[in-house]
Amino acid sequence: MSPITLLALSGSLRSASYNTAAIVALQSLAPAYIEIVIGSIAQLPLFNPDLEGQHIPALDELVSALNQADGLIIASPEYAHGISGPMKNALDWLVGGVEFPYKPIMLINTSPRAQHALDALKEVLTTMSGNIIAEACVAIPLLSSELDADGISGDRELSKTLLSALEEFRVAIEAERSA
Ligand SMILES: Cc1cc2nc3c(=O)[nH]c(=O)nc-3n(C[C@H](O)[C@H](O)[C@H](O)COP(=O)(O)O)c2cc1C
Fold first, then answer.
1. Residue nearest to atom 4 of ligand 1 (CA)
2. Is there a domain that residue 139 lies in?
3. What is the pLDDT of residues 115-153, one digit of tens each?
4. In this predicted structure, what is the pLDDT of residue 137?
5. For residue 42, how far is its CA from the centre of ligand 1 (angstroms)?
6. Any domain includes 142
7. N or C terminus of the chain with fewer C-beta within 10 Å?
8. Based on the structure, what is the number of domains in the chain?
9. What CATH number should be reported for the domain holding residue 44?
10. In which band, very low, low, confident or very high, does the pLDDT at 179 lie, cut at 50, 70 and 90?
11. What pTM was estimated for this model as a whole?
């Protein structure tokens, strides 16, 4: 297998976030040839087009990590039927760049009832010319589970679901590489 690097972003800033736990679990479960780098969006300033082109360390880091990644993994919660503010803010910062378009994307939905935010996220990502890989999008019922990353990676069903979605993602990325 040729090595693959993926950037994973959580749309939650909460310390006990299920979304963050899901990507940390996936990072630990991933086979050796798939490196999952967990990026941070917490330090990004609120999006302001007037600041575009200025030196913003948190944005430079995010853009560099995205540039080096073969694909993007997003796990983001629903707040009041919408995309989380931090995630929408991060995406707005990426709209004007060249790194995002056509990037393969895997979505992890940690609350299968949260359909509004998922639909809105897909709409935004598609508008940004992201390449959502449907077979790699997965829903895992973590809400109220009290599971942390170790609990998720230690759970047979959850880890199996996450890993098979990751495998679908790898296959799609490989197929696009050789197209
Ligand atoms: C202010 C607020 C609004 C929320 N609105 C919704 C909602 O509209 N639909 C939903 O399914 N869950 C909603 N939730 C539940 C969160 O999506 C849920 O707690 C999720 O686990 C948060 O993500 P995290 O665990 O990664 O921090 C809301 C939670 C908060 C705090």
1. 79
2. yes
3. 999 999 999 999 999 999 999 999 999 999 999 999 999
4. 98
5. 17
6. yes
7. C
8. 1
9. 3.40.50.360
10. confident
11. 0.98
> Where does ligand 1 bind, in terms of residues with CB under 6 Å?
12, 14, 17-19, 77-81, 111, 113-114, 143
Looking at the domain assignment, is residue 52 inside a domain? yes
> 3-class secondary structure for the chain?
CCCEEEEEEECCCCCCCHHHHHHHHHHHHCCCCEEEEECCCCCCCCCCHHHCCCCCHHHHHHHHHHHHCCEEEEECCEECCEECHHHHHHHHHHHCCCCCCCCEEEEEECCCCCHHHHHHHHHHHHHCCCEECHHHCEECCCCCCCCCHHHHHCCHHHHHHHHHHHHHHHHHHHHHHCC
| Segment 25-41, tens digit of pLDDT | 999 999 999 999 999 99
